[in-house]
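I hope you will forgive my troubling you with a question about protein structure. The matter concerns a single protein, recorded as an amino acid sequence and a row of backbone structure tokens. Please examine both parts with care and let me know of anything in them that strikes you as inconsistent. Thank you for your consideration; the sequence and its tokens are set out here:
***
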Amino acid sequence: MVEVRNTERELHRLRVRLAVALLVVLMCFGMLGARFWWLQIYRYADFHAQAEDNRIALVPAPPSRGLVFDRNGVLLAENVSAYTLELTPMRNARLEETIDALSQIVEITPRERRRFRRLLQDSRRSESVPLKVKLTDEEVARLAVQRFRFPGVEIRARLFRTYPLGDTAAHVLGYIGRISPDDVAKLDDQERLAQYAGSTHIGKVGIEQSYEQVLHGRVGADEVEVSAGGRVVRTLSRTPPVPGSNLILSIDIRLQKLVEELFGDRRGALVAIEPATGDVLAFVSRPGYDPNLFVDGIDPQTWQSLNEDPDHPLLNRPLRGAYPPGSTYKPFMALAALTTGARTPADTISDPGYFLLGTHRFRDSKPSGHGTVDLRKSIVVSSDTYYYKLAYEMGVDRIHDFMKPWGFGQLTGIDLENESTGVLPSTQWKMRRYRQKWFPGETPSIGIGQGYNAFTILQLAHATATLANNGIVMKPHLVQSIEDPISHERQRTVPKESYRIPLAPAHLKLVQEAMAEVNRVGTGRLAFAGARYVAAGKTGTAQVIGIRQNERYDARRVSERHRDHSLFVAFAPLENPKIAVAVIVENGGFGAQAAAPIVRKVFDYHLLGLLPKDLDEDLLPKVQDEAELRDIPEDIEPETIAVPEAAKP
């Protein structure tokens, strides 16, 4: 049987198939066309930007840190350019082997290895960590030809912070260090993290920390074209960074160095202030440390030795150390007595060598007493008995209220962080601190700067400067002005006074002149013999350990670190004072023996330009023993000392 083909039907089917195929092809091309339109027209701007982002990278350009100068233009903190050898942990899995191999090319000391391990703990794996800094040109050349052997190893040019004078003024300047995770968190909270793009260091202590925002500057950026491998091809544009502002300190670095040399290997602190401005002329804490050790990361062994040193070189003594002021408190107690009406200049007491309260004897430093004593003589001969009685009659709260505006037990507001408040006792303070009421027997010791009194040397210097400035309070500051790095315009940090303490001019004059008598015929007479200016001062001795009621203090029977502290406060000249100083020599004994001679040399330098002939030999003159220093001439009687007419009742 022969099959008859239906040509028309087959042709129809073919046409349908061709139509469907054509429709499918048209739909595919339509989809492709729509996709092309979507990518190349509608999303052109987005994809062009992404392509440019892949081709162009923004590289942060960190700013150079501001410089630090003393008041006379001496450079104290600078930036030097040098090469550093760095490793990126994420790009090298065999760090120790790599370091061993690198040590065959350049010397890598054990200290540098320890420092690298410590920095590694505080860094992200994607960050490069310095192994060896400040490479020589020869070391750079040797490493450059061998670098291909070491993945993750780079030689980078960086600016390094250096402190040319080493440990001089270390507690003023502080130091910078690598940015830690805690620093990152703090910057993020302050919404300043973007300003540290590309930066590796930040101020840690001192003015490097307190003026961080001023010193750091503003970050810039380089717009560069990069290859597919990430290599920079060319720079397209540049937004330059703005360097940090320079700081002009109030410190006279030569005076600072002189004082540090005068201390020798003894522990202590000194603060010198210009009364009229609040400029801190010297801010000394001994012993000190070299801030250069911290810039590139300190190794654990050196850090441990500094922390465990019994002399505590890292302690900022003027800012953080709280000491009893001893008899240096008496001029302020005298002003309190006159201002509150507790005493008049003509009031006298009989000083038998002790103050009796119930059955307890508060002993005077002179067992035989000073006889008849008025307010002026009480300062000159440093009568403890006078101030035992005065403090007991005034009461601790009246003393507290008078002393508070002078800055005792308060923050001075100096431009350093972590200042200690010290302790200015009161009945409320004791109740808060010890949950106990104030006992009357605790008050007499307050009058001679003992008991609960504990102030910083900064507070003592600040109060002395205020006394010299006739009650006008100027905030103490270490940075005198901030200098624009481009225009070099300067702006003072403390342009005006803070406030004034209401005091009668006659009362001020009486106390100031009595302090001048201290250095003429009183406890400071030997240190200031032959001075070509009139200096007002007051010696002080602060107990470190208590002694029994019927027992006398004998320094020879006490270990060196348990001996009394030596204190001295002074200002000069008497008329129109240019400098006020407070100093403590820890465990130095009587104030006139260790502290006063340092102040004499400070005044000789600042007022007369005189320096010791040889700073490397015995700087402090040998003076008579402590008994002779305390032996005040007995012809100083109340009736022989003129009282200003305006001060008479």
Observations:
- The chain has 22 helices and 23 strands.
- The mean pLDDT is 86.
- The chain has two domains: 58-249+632-640, 253-302+315-612.
